[in-house]
Amino acid sequence: MALLNLSRCYYFWLTIVVPISLMLMASYASADAGDMFNVTAGSTLTYDSNLFRRSDSLPPVLASDGKPARSDQIIISSVTFNLNKRYSLQRFEASGSLVDNRYNNFDFLNFIAKNGSAAWNWSLTPYLYGRISGSHTEALNNFAALTGFINSTNRNLRTTDILRFDGTFEVDRAWHLVGGINQTITKNSLINIQDFNTTITSVEGGIRYAFLSGSSLTYRIRSGRGEFTNRPQPIVSRLFDTRFDELENEMRLVWPVTAKTSIDTRIGYLDRKHAHFAQRDFAGFVGNFNFNWAITDSTRITASWARDLANWQTAGVFILPGFEPFSSSYAIGDQFSLAPVWQITAKTALRLRYDYNSRDFLGAVSAVPDNRHDSQHIGFIELDWQPARAVFLSTSLRRDVRTSNLRGYDYESTSVSATARLNF
């Protein structure tokens, strides 16, 4: 079956890539020297031992053929087009991709994602500039996040549309005024209880001090109004609201400590209030710390920590049998990461990464014995080889283990992937 899917993908991409490549070659002949077009086509074959991130204590899911299964073989084939063009002080970027996702055992998950983005890096003067951008992405909801809920094994596509305007005015060489407007729209093809369909519109502004050494210190404040779309009235029985307001203050430091080390850190305070149900409100510190070290010319490492607060509203009626119920309005996550890279040769690189995640589900709105707490360990190793400018090959191994204080939310998974990509 996997070979059959692979052959289908092969012929599918032949019919797309060949004509487009010929058109691009023709366009290059008449293009200006500053024009930059390219197209990338590739496929990734992945074996995943636990696709739906199910606990070993729970029975496997019925596959498309009616037989129980945990693992799957996935072929993801894609073609991406990129444009990058500069006109005087202006620069324009655009990209679009088709991503064909094919599952062997659970073929009801098959879908073709249509993703795209565009940006205008505008500049009225060398001292007044910014960026206008938009993006559209489509992907399956994360199965690890859905574990235990009635929608955990469904084909639930999540689309995200982002529109953003950023501007910077340099008062002088040191002091800069910054501001922006952002709108993010998320939609699910099926009901997603934990993170509903939302529209968030935000306005932000701040001030930055740029040091002659290349460091910068920025203070920014953001005010946002959010709506739970497709919900005209609050659902009182489950304390599901119609809208909310967010206020976030943050400080960010970018510091190139030496020629080989740099620090990028942010600390902020996020306060979210709901229109009708104060029980769903939450607030707390967020931020991140990244330390980058180029140990030698061929080795480097990044160590990082990040904390986030995220909406995570639950109601017991949506929990599957076999899982301990829990109640929450939001989740606090802490992530620690180490990511070394060894550039073995000019064409070969070895990448490692280890993540430790800790997540607490808080803000209970119903009586439960205990708050849910998860711990997760993720190990990743990847070997990249680029024998020619137009050819990229990669293979990777990933191990993911999550434990939980509540029954049913733990899992283990191992995945192996191989990727081949061509750049035209």
- Computed structural class: mainly beta
* Number of beta strands: 20
Portion in beta strands: over 45%
Rg (CA only)? 24 Å
H/E series: HEEEEEEEHEEEEEEEEEEEEE
Number of helices: 2
N/C terminus separation: 30 Å
Biggest beta-sheet profile: 18 strands, antiparallel, barrel
* Contiguous runs where pLDDT drops below 50 for at least 5 residues: 1-35
Mean pLDDT: 90
Described by the principal axes of the CA atoms, the overall outline is globular
- Helical percentage: under 10%
Walk me through the structure.
This protein is mainly beta. It has helices at 2-30, 143-146; strands at residues 36-48, 61-62, 68-69, 72-87, 90-103, 111-125, 128-140, 157-170, 175-188, 198-210, 216-228, 243-255, 261-274, 282-293, 299-311, 330-342, 348-362, 373-388, 391-404, 411-423. It has an 18-stranded antiparallel barrel. Strands 2-3 form a two-stranded antiparallel sheet. It is globular and about 60 Å long. It starts with a helix and ends with a strand. The relative contact order is 0.11.
Key words describing this protein structure:
424 residues; mainly beta; 18-stranded antiparallel β-barrel; 20 strands; disordered N terminus
Summarize the structure.
By secondary structure, the chain is mainly beta. It is 8% helix and 59% strand.
What secondary-structure arrangement, pairings included, does this model have?
Layout: H1 2-30, E1 36-48, E2 61-62, E3 68-69, E4 72-87, E5 90-103, E6 111-125, E7 128-140, H2 143-146, E8 157-170, E9 175-188, E10 198-210, E11 216-228, E12 243-255, E13 261-274, E14 282-293, E15 299-311, E16 330-342, E17 348-362, E18 373-388, E19 391-404, E20 411-423
Antiparallel strand pairs: 1-4, 1-20, 2-3, 4-5, 5-6, 6-7, 7-8, 8-9, 9-10, 10-11, 11-12, 12-13, 13-14, 14-15, 15-16, 16-17, 17-18, 18-19, 19-20
